[in-house]
Amino acid sequence: MKTIQKYLKKLDRKELEENYFKMHPIELYELEDKDDLTIGEVKAHYSKRLQDYIDRLCKVELTKDLDHRSILFVREAYDADNYVGLVNEDELLEKEDLSEVTEYAYGFDKESVALAYLVADTPLTRENIMEVAVDFLWEMTWYGYEPDAGYQKAEEWEHRDDLIVSELSDIEEFGIPKEEDPIYEDLLNQFSDAYRKYESYLITHELKLIKEQLNK
Predict the structure, then answer these.
(1) Which residue stretches of the chain are H helix?
(2) What is the chain's pLDDT, residue by residue, as a tens digit (216 residues)?
(3) How far apart are CA 16 and CA 12, in angstroms?
(4) Which residues on adjacent β-strands are paired with residue 83?
(5) CA-to-CA distance for 208 and 216, rounded, in angstroms?
(6) In angstroms, how far is the first alpha carbon of the chain from the final one?
(7) Residue of 205, 189, 215, 213 lying closest to 101 (CA atoms)
(8) Are strands 118-119 and 70-77 parallel, antiparallel or unpaired?
(9) 72, 118 in Cβ contact below 8 A?
(10) Cβ atoms within 10 A of the Cβ of 202, count?
(11) CA angle at residue 83 from 126 to 3, to 5 degrees?
């Protein structure tokens, strides 16, 4: 298996950029301070930003002494064409029941760590390697294109004691009556159960292939 950094170095840049903006087009709010630019100039601006970012990632020195190795992989998903996941290699190898393997978020890792992620050498992942690269870039730039932007954001949150997360547990708090419909509830429960089983099957199918490769 190769690192995601190696794939970023070898993938066709023009094709990667086209796929990136196809999956994540420029949003209108991003153009608020660019009223004086033509469409061509806007495209050139965002193209350069992305290409400069990829150039920089390709030059980052990877962390060598990792606590653990992580693996990016593609799996099918019920509500999307595909889904890019990340798992811990040690956890994958030690778990007998692959449905217990945790998928991790990675937008908050240091670039030197994230770029060392391995990419699974499974058929579905190989066929969708461009999607893996696009997803990786999207996650890593969620909080900006500056070095370690996501990692720094996580550090800010970790040291904030005034962050209050509130959650509404019941719509009846607003005085909206909650309609009871036994048939609806039963069908919803059946669907939810089937959905969880199907998603679990799709995940474990790919994890089984990865584990077999690691055990060779």
Answers:
(1) 4-10, 13-23, 39-59, 89-94, 111-114, 123-127, 129-140, 149-158, 182-214
(2) 999 999 999 999 999 999 999 988 876 556 666 667 777 887 888 889 999 999 999 999 998 878 888 999 998 877 767 889 999 999 999 999 998 998 888 778 889 999 999 999 999 999 999 999 999 999 998 887 888 787 777 777 665 544 434 333 444 455 555 567 788 888 888 888 888 888 888 889 999 999 998 987
(3) 6
(4) 75
(5) 13
(6) 12
(7) 205
(8) parallel
(9) yes
(10) 18
(11) 45
The pair of three-digit structure tokens given for residue 165, joined into one six-digit string: 């997360």
Nearest residue to 72 via CA among 12, 140, 138, 2: 2
CB 164 within 8 A of CB 50: no
Q: Residue 135: what pLDDT?
A: 93
> Which two tokens mark 212?
């077999």
Total residues belonging to the chain? 216
Which DSSP string corresponds to 5-32?
HHHHHHS-HHHHHHHHHHHSPPPGGGGT
Residue ranges covered by each domain of the chain: 2-163+197-214
Specify the amino acid at residue 167: E
How do strand 2-3 and strand 118-119 relate by DSSP bridges?
Answer: antiparallel
**How far, in Å, are 2, 41, 75, 76, 204 from residue 96 at the CA level?**
25, 54, 20, 22, 11
Residue 166: exposure state from Cβ atoms within 10 A (0-12, 13-18, ≥19): exposed
SS3 151: helix
Among all chains, which residue has been given the structure tokens 């009556």?
177
